[in-house]
Write a structure and sequence with these properties.
The chain has four helices and four strands, in the order αβαββαβα. The radius of gyration is 14 Å and the shape is globular. The protein starts with a helix and ends with a helix.
Length: about 130
């Protein structure tokens, strides 16, 4: 993922216009990669996931380069694969790694290990706010 970020930067995309995001393992990878990245990124979308190697943080965060990164974390309240409790624990851990007010944790009642239109609307609004048209 870091090589993809480098590739995009070489193609003229500034890192502060790059958002990493994913669902489940993809969300976990996005969180870990962004928080250990050497470039200041725009944000992270982390859906139905957890922070891998959470005990390594905040020390693993690369000199706080992304201390002010915006994070949208969403989780289904009925997720049997990754219980919402793990999402909540991740959100609390993230607040010790980045500026706490930059972490949004939204849960969705009745949603299992999947997404819903309301979650996708939250993602859309988050991206539009972070990356206004240029």
């Amino acid at each position: 993922v870091k090589a993809i970020i480098e590739h995009e930067m070489k193609n003229g995309i500034p890192p502060n216009r790059i958002i990493l995001g994913g669902f489940s393992q993809g969300g976990a990878l996005s969180l870990y990669t962004a928080l250990t990245c050497q470039h200041q990124l725009a944000g992270i979308v982390a859906l139905s996931c957890w922070l891998p190697l959470h005990k390594a943080f905040p020390q693993a965060a690369n000199n706080g380069v992304n201390k002010d990164i915006a994070i949208l974390q969403c989780h289904g309240e009925l997720d049997p694969m990754i219980p919402v409790r793990f999402g909540a624990l991740t959100a609390e851990k993230l607040k010790s790694v980045v500026t706490p007010t930059k972490v949004q944790f939204k849960t969705f009642p009745g949603v299992m290990h999947s997404s819903c239109p309301q979650e996708m609307m939250a993602v859309k609004e988050f991206i539009e706010k972070l990356l206004p048209r240029i």
